[in-house]
Design brief:
Two copies of one chain form a homodimer. The first copy, chain A, has six helices and eight strands. By secondary structure, chain A is α/β, with parallel strands linked by helices. An eight-stranded mixed sheet of chain A has the order 1-2-3-4-5-6-7-8. The interface between A and B is large, with 39 and 39 residues. The structure holds iron/sulfur cluster (SF4) (2 copies). One iron/sulfur cluster (SF4) binds at residues 27, 29-31, 34, 36, 73-75, 101, 120 of chain B. The site of one iron/sulfur cluster has 11 residues of chain A, from loops. Chains A, B: Its EC number is 4.3.99.3. Chains A, B: Keywords: 4Fe-4S, Iron, Iron-sulfur, Lyase, Magnesium, Metal-binding, Queuosine biosynthesis, S-adenosyl-L-methionine. Chains A, B: Belongs to the radical SAM superfamily. 7-carboxy-7-deazaguanine synthase family. Chains A, B: Catalyzes the complex heterocyclic radical-mediated conversion of 6-carboxy-5,6,7,8-tetrahydropterin (CPH4) to 7-carboxy-7-deazaguanine (CDG), a step common to the biosynthetic pathways of all 7-deazapurine-containing compounds.
């Protein structure tokens, strides 16, 4: 569990939003290209904290210069205490965003102000459990929920098309992936990320299925490369 | 009047949205850093077209691979025929986005699916008529409207803070400007745009007034530099 910010949300439905991050440890997946492996592969050290403690840290680190908190991971749905954290954030007048792959349901998800479901495409090496995902979509029908798929290759794009057709009512986001999560050559990384983004736009532009989709890069990676905690 | 796309919306409230562009000619402003000067300074050639003609062009050029049309400028509010164009777009099942500085009101603005009001900060050399802008904000209270300010310097940022305080209920976007609209050195342009974006984020992060703002770059300039019609 680490707390950082304020910074901006670099991805998805509230892209650009000024926010604090609470990054939880642990994941039930192990995506080949995970950019947060340190949250679950044992290389990171993580101390679990009580919701009240996290609120204190948010206040201390954020210094009043925020009104939005993003709970990311790992998979934040694995943690029991998050429901109470969400409640406490709301009591403090902060909005709460969450991203999860949609593999573990928690009732507190209905209280989230912006929730991104990000099922993983074939290149991740993971399998989507559609029974679970159907349950998520159904139970979040009244919530401010979107679907987001990270695309590395054309097979991933095909997966995204099928997904969008399965849940046509849910706002849909395509996102470029970062295939080099260790380089420190920022100029090179930026160039390759923008090239990938242009490639993804060209796929989306041709696809009639993606007519109402949004196609986005990861802004934080463009700005800060692979640096952590910004 | 030019039609191009499909491409993605690189700015503001529907960033990443797949869309066609209808770029209208003419502007009542003459911002120092305008990136569409060719629409109003006499260097571009422009033929005015009937709404029906524009619809035909959208169909021909877009080839069915879109469901959203962005009307940009210049200032699209200067054109009488836009109301009918919006109507025809809706009849075709397309959503319509518009960006305007908020200096000329038109009743069709209430029908727009996403409308961005972008008053110009001091660095533009323009003056904001707040009586007019108040009228816009009041009349678009039921619409899906946002405010966006392009920031070049700290004085612009101060202007944006005052604006956000004046209209606290309207979702607020800060955007980096492009101070070199003629270079063809894309790598250099990308680097300087990302540097500016990082600078703008750092201003926004420190400002308590901007707690609920979104801070965004121009995606199309990052991807395509100063190329036109992409
Ligand atoms: S679901 Fe997310 S955090 Fe978990 S392994 Fe995949 S990319 Fe990493
Ligand atoms: S209002 Fe927009 S189009 Fe008109 S001069 Fe200013 S930047 Fe250019």
């Amino acid at each position: 569990m680490e707390v950082f910010g304020p910074t901006i949300q670099g991805e998805g439905m509230v892209m650009g939003q000024k926010t604090m991050f609470v990054r939880t440890a642990g994941c039930d997946y192990s995506c080949s290209w995970c950019d947060s492996k340190f949250t679950w592969d044992g290389t990171g050290t993580s101390v679990s904290k009580k919701p009240e403690q996290i609120i204190e840290e948010l206040k201390a680190i954020g210094g009043g210069a925020f009104s939005h908190v993003t709970i990311s991971g790992g998979n934040p749905a694995l943690h029991k205490g998050i429901g109470q954290l969400v409640e406490l954030c709301h009591e403090n007048g902060w909005k709460v965003g969450v991203e999860t792959q949609g593999s573990f349901w928690q009732d507190w998800m209905r209280e989230i102000d912006d929730i991104t479901l990000s099922p993983k495409p074939p290149s991740s090496g993971m399998q989507t459990d559609f029974t679970k995902l159907d349950f998520f979509i159904e139970n979040l029908a009244e919530a401010n929920a979107t679907l987001k798929v990270v695309i590395f290759d054309e097979e991933d794009f095909k997966y995204a098309e099928d997904l969008h057709l399965r849940y046509p009512a849910v706002p849909f986001f395509l996102q470029t992936g970062n295939s080099d999560t260790s380089t420190t050559d920022d100029a090179l990384l930026t160039a390759s990320l923008l090239e990938r983004y242009e490639w993804l736009i060209s796929l989306a532009v041709r696809s009639h299925i993606m007519n109402d989709a949004k196609v986005l890069p990861q802004l934080h990676t463009l700005v800060w490369g692979n640096k952590r905690g910004v």
